[in-house]
Amino acid sequence: MKKTIVWILMLALTLSLIGCSADKSEEGVLDGITNAVTSIGDGMQEIFSSSSDTYTYKNDEWDLYIATFVSQKTIKIENWYRFYASDEYPFKYDHDVIVVSTDDDAAGFYWLDDDHTAFAITIKDEENSRFEEPKTVGFTKNNNTTESHVSTGKNIFTYRHDKWDHYVAVATSDTVITIECWYRFSAGEGADPFEYSYDVCSFSTISGEKDFKWLDDSHTAFSITILDERNSRFDEPQTVCFGLNSDYLATGLNGQSTVYTYLNDSWDLYAATFLTDNTVRIENWNRFMAGEDGDPFCYEHDVMILCSDFGESSFAWLDDTHAAFTVRMMDSENSHWDEITEASFVICGNFAEQYLLPAIEYENRVPEEDDELDDSEEASENFG
């Protein structure tokens, strides 16, 4: 009988010690911040990585960060890496970055919307030489972890900064927008396609962040003040405009059939399309060679989006048929245009045929009788 009682007491003591050990192990992983999670087995890591609530932040073409919730208030963030920055090479789970409590003030965690579709957090990755300093980044819910947020977004807006950098803004909820950079290395003849490169930022449209402002009542365009530190051509804050564009990688004009044009000079053509009846988008189309057999014009960058109902743009139709309009504008990306100018845009019947095909050889046209001059007369008129 005594042996039985002793055996029962020893068994109870053993179970108690096992329970304390488990509690201590869990506390060591979940309490506070750590950069090396060593007490979680491989099986548990697979559970975290395949969680239904997966959030992603793409730092660049090589490093993708995946965040999953271990518990209601505990996040595990992983680094997924690839050596070659090409879609042919998938990201692979490389290392754990951090396990952090959402209540930890040092992490600066906050939700960007009430539906918990995105959050901001301050982190660093000491294993990544491109992410060694703390910075606040936005993670967006995205179960297609290695793909752009476009596949899960509601509305898509675009802004072309230059021929190499195309920015895509995805409305991932009613009040959250994530901005991505799509980049290409070659922008000349036979240019590369744009590819999803990295996430720039995520923000709330109702918090007053980044001077965000809708440009019209139908929410087809917005302005925002941002910078992109990873882009040497965009490393100073700028106020830019994004416009609704379902064909987000289109070569320009958003598939609109009605185009208005203003030819500033032989190299820079400005094309305008209406996103709505009163919201107009103006693009710069440029060409390198403008002489005989000149290059066709190519979509270079976005200049502005404006609402014709607002007076600050001095927008005005020139007739009731809406065949032409004037607007005061400036293109800061064009070194030949350094001040605000009133530009006149006229409806263009066939934009592709007139401007996208090789330049017309005006020099080979048949001159009218009044134009015929001998060499001496022409020289006299040109230089006399």
List the helices and strands and how they pair.
Elements: H1 2-30, H2 42-49, E1 54-58, E2 63-71, E3 74-81, E4 92-101, E5 110-111, E6 118-123, E7 135-141, E8 156-160, E9 165-171, E10 176-183, E11 195-204, E12 213-214, E13 221-226, E14 238-244, E15 259-263, E16 268-274, E17 279-286, E18 298-307, E19 316-317, E20 324-329, E21 341-348, H3 351-356, H4 375-383
Antiparallel strand pairs: 1-2, 1-7, 2-3, 3-4, 5-6, 6-7, 8-9, 8-14, 9-10, 10-11, 12-13, 13-14, 15-16, 15-21, 16-17, 17-18, 19-20, 20-21
Describe this structure in words.
- The strands form 3 sheets. A 7-stranded antiparallel β-sheet has the order 4-3-2-1-7-6-5, with no helix packed on it. The chain has a 7-stranded antiparallel β-sheet with strand order 11-10-9-8-14-13-12, with no helix packed on it.
- It has helices at 2-30, 42-49, 351-356, 375-383, and strands at 54-58, 63-71, 74-81, 92-101, 110-111, 118-123, 135-141, 156-160, 165-171, 176-183, 195-204, 213-214, 221-226, 238-244, 259-263, 268-274, 279-286, 298-307, 316-317, 324-329, 341-348.
- It has 4 helices and 21 strands.
- It is globular.
- The chain is mainly β and 384 residues long.
